[in-house]
Design brief:
Elements lengths: L2 H25 L10 H25 L25
Length: about 90
């Protein structure tokens, strides 16, 4: 699998997980009231996704095999551009 596909997987898996966790919270009774706008729901999904991604990356830095929580245990490697210094 090439690095581009891995990067897409590692982006979309957290988005899907954030969506599922937010849906599950709603099913378990965590419901936004009628006065809450769609924007608040969108922000909730984004926050859950960001927290999941950050937690998965933190776990992966300690235990590399847990990169699978992002959909692929292998991190993508991007080649350096001409004149660019990699750190």
């Amino acid at each position: 699998m090439n690095d581009y596909v891995i990067s897409l997987i590692r982006t979309w898996v957290p988005v899907g997980v954030g969506l599922v966790i937010t849906w599950l919270a709603r099913e378990l009774g965590v419901v936004l009231d009628d006065d809450t706008t769609a924007t608040a729901a969108t922000v909730a999904v984004a926050v859950v996704t960001a927290v999941y991604y950050a937690a998965a990356r933190a776990l992966e830095s300690r235990w590399p095999a847990l990169g699978v929580l992002l959909g692929a245990a292998k991190t993508p490697a991007y080649p350096a551009r001409a004149g660019e210094v990699r750190r």
